[in-house]
Amino acid sequence: GNSVTQMEGPVTLSEEAFLTINCTYTATGYPSLFWYVQYPGEGLQLLLKATKADDKGSNKGFEATYRKETTSFHLEKGSVQVSDSAVYFCALPKAAGNKLTFGGGTRVLVKP
Amino acid sequence: KAGVTQTPRYLIKTRGQQVTLSCSPISGHRSVSWYQQTPGQGLQFLFEYFSETQRNKGNFPGRFSGRQFSNSRSEMNVSTLELGDSALYLCASSLATDMNTEAFFGQGTRLTVV
Question: A37: distance to nearest CA of chain B, Å?
């Protein structure tokens, strides 16, 4: 079945630094790819998605491009803020249906 | 519109007891999935329901069960609680069962078993 591997954290950055979180996947076909974010004490929020190869998802200054040739979906943000401190999860459907498989999560801490 | 609502937000139970968690999906969403989140195992899929039918089930013991009602609200039940069941339980709703449809999560129920 489909699977995803995500870089481990924690990642500690200063405000306004560049953030990249690596995510690679193994999939049958071309499922949609997702990034979710979890703020402290909260559930998961959908950050962005991409539905096909070369598609770029973007939201709140974050971007990720669906790369078929490298089977990657790296998350990037050009200038992070303290409020971006959270845990980020890469995800894709396991198979048919809405069963998602998640990466292990990357904790990001942004210091002022 | 209202998001996914999970109740209660926090629960403390004793080993051996049972617990029922509730999830109200976004209005119009008919698919509900449940996940367990722990520091050691991360996010693990429990089960998925669509139109009151269980469509997928994760690799969890039979102590974990769920159901979905005609109004799409869902409950999960854990019987004979163990310390290892302490976790954040997340519910997600989706408009359809298409694998490309995004899932919207509730804030979760944090269960502590003592």
Answer: 11
Nearest to A98 among B42, B58, B101 (CB): B101
Type of residue numbered B74: S
Q: Confirm if B22 and B6 have CB atoms less than 8 A apart.
A: yes
Question: Which chain A residues are Cβ-neighbours of B54 within 8 angstroms?
Answer: none
Statement: residue B1 has pLDDT above 80? no
- Which residues of chain A carry a pLDDT beneath 70? 95-98
Asked if residues B107 and B10 have their Cβ atoms less than 8 Å apart, the reply is no
* Residue A71 to residue A82: CA distance in whole angstroms: 30
Contact A16, A84 (CB under 8 A): no
Task: Return the half-sphere exposure (C-beta side, CA atoms, 13 A cut-off) of residue B76.
Answer: 30
